[in-house]
Amino acid sequence: MKKLVVTMMAATLLLAGCSGGKSKDSAETIKIGVNLEQSGPVSSYGNAELEGVQLAVEEINEKGGVLGKKLELVELDNKSDTTEVASVATKLASKEKVSAIIGPATSGNVKAAIPATNQAKVPLIAPSGTDDSVTMDNNDKVQPYVFRVCFQDSFQGEIMAAYAENDLGAKKAAILSDSSSDYAKGLTAAFKDSFTGDIVSEENYQSKDTDFSAVLTKMKSKGMDVLFIPGYYEEAGLIVKQAREAGIEVPILGADGFDSPELVKLAGKSALNKVYFPAHFSSLSEEKQVQDFLTNYKKKFDKEPNAFSALAYDSVYLLVDAIERADSADSEKITEALEATEDYQGLTGKMTIDKDHNAVKTATIVELKEGEQTVVAE
Amino acid sequence: MDQFLQQVVNGLSLGSIYALLALGYTMVYGIIKLINFAHGEIYMVGAYVGYTAIQNWGLGLIPALFIAMTFCAVLGVLIERVAYRPLRNATRIAALITAIGVSFLLQYVMILFMGPDVRTFPETVPAKIFKFGGVQVNEQQIYIFVISIILMFLLQFIVKKTKMGKAMRAVSVDSDAAKLMGINVDTTISFTFALGSALAGAAGVLVGVYYNSINPLMGAAPGLKAFVAAVFGGIGLIPGAMLGGLSIGVTEIMVSGYASSLIKDAVVYAILILVLLIKPSGLLGKNKKEKV
């Protein structure tokens, strides 16, 4: 019996070894792995991105594919769980032999996928991992196979500080941030570094809190010109509502986590005036590329796309651009081509990949008026 | 000074919610000596029932409140009948573990049906703001405070003045003796659960209206704090629960207002430990000597 098991195991290993023999260039399709949060707590981001990816791939295949081959998606659900993320990444890179991987959506999950993709030397494109450390390892060296198409948190913090000073004329700022998230910490640090005025008050909350009346009352008495809330819409919506009710009328600055229709529902339209945040993508843009995307997305999924869908859509096109420049579906060659990306025009702006594998691009600053978005600065 | 008064107002509106929840804990404990850990989840169910009534059936706040209270009363009785009654003569730890089990069951059944996402409560009470000097009071805060006070008085009336209330008090003192006097102990306990759960349901709807955001796990933290409030005021005592709830609410707000919001929960739980160490019977409780 034991012998049989051993023989079987040996046979499986042999088979597994064989299937890897075929090179990615000689395959009939170009395989792209999709490692996204299709279920679990952050599934709303993951599913929006999956739709963006599917739309982009469908468009490309209709036009005849890349290098004469069709793109083939391998979509696996990482369940918003870091352990699953790692196993999905391994499966995609080593078993499915994909040329490149798109996703996961959140910074934490991207970090969990990196060891597997590094080992298999497969490039990973993160559509929306904004945390600064996503593309860096612990020794501040760049992760060789990780790229992102979104801007970073430090950049968001900087532009919001600059906007507060130059456009809103703020001299005194107050910060109310989530004490438990890396996202909030990164944004707060960047904002404080670039803001030259006084930070008159800095308070914290915890995610899932619902009552902010005490800290807001306290902050109101300090006197401020702007209130910066680096956080996600779930709490930010409630904070904005309660701040306006407490009589805090100063402009409120946020981050890309504000960009959700849920924010309007939570805060209420009347509270959402003089609220500013940086957006990856604005559906108000008149560029043909954006308008086509909006039409096609609506036709395919019967709803409005959000920034996450747009970033994922850009990730696919950026990858295809790299494959074409590399003239190969080989992972190493694609990685080199991605590194050389310059002035690539996507839905979310023109981007250049810098030496740290970050997308250098512009952000759109959006102002909410009665809950409606208007673009105030690029 | 204005800031202090404003914080008191904030604290009282948060405290009224804890008080409503603490009343349910205290009543159940008073009668069968069980800490009903599923109480916070009944509050969550109440919030969802209120949400459905307002959002899907287009009802106003008061009818929604009644529907949620009725639904939760029935749910409370059902839970008692299915989960607690068969264990009435079992050890207390068995009943406690069952209560925790029921609490998880309710949370995840709700996730199954309504999804894990935060839902926004439709606006029913306009957020009109009244100013008294430098102090701002929101119309919703007034609603919460007034409705809580009315419900507390109603409860006190039922317990002290009605026949059922008398039966409840009798069962709480000695259930065997009460049975000998011809009191139907099962009905009385069911009634207690119905009453406590209805209050939790009311608290759920009020929280939905006030904070505008509900989710299936919203009951866990306030449930624990209400438990602290009940112990603080003297578990088993109705005025104690009211006092405890309001004090915990004000404490929490004062800690975030004058110290740091990061330690507010730590302070609340430290109070629990201190009360248990120094005066286990609570603020209003009398130290009883146990007869052997």
UniProtKB/TrEMBL annotation, chain A:
CDD domains: PBP1_ABC_LivK_ligand_binding-like. It comes from the Bacteria. Pfam families: Peripla_BP_6. The keyword Transport applies. Residues 29-371 form the Leucine-binding protein domain. GO terms for biological process: amino acid transport. The keyword Transport applies. Belongs to the leucine-binding protein family. This is Amino acid/amide ABC transporter substrate-binding protein, HAAT family. It comes from Isobaculum melis.
Automatic annotation (TrEMBL), chain B:
GO terms for biological process: D-alanine transmembrane transport; L-alanine transport; L-isoleucine import across plasma membrane. One of its GO terms (cellular component) is plasma membrane. The keyword Membrane applies. GO terms for molecular function: L-isoleucine transmembrane transporter activity; L-leucine transmembrane transporter activity; L-phenylalanine transmembrane transporter activity; L-valine transmembrane transporter activity. It comes from the Bacteria. Keywords: Amino-acid transport, Cell inner membrane, Cell membrane, Membrane, Transmembrane, Transmembrane helix, Transport. Belongs to the binding-protein-dependent transport system permease family. LivHM subfamily. This is Amino acid/amide ABC transporter membrane protein 1, HAAT family. It comes from Isobaculum melis.
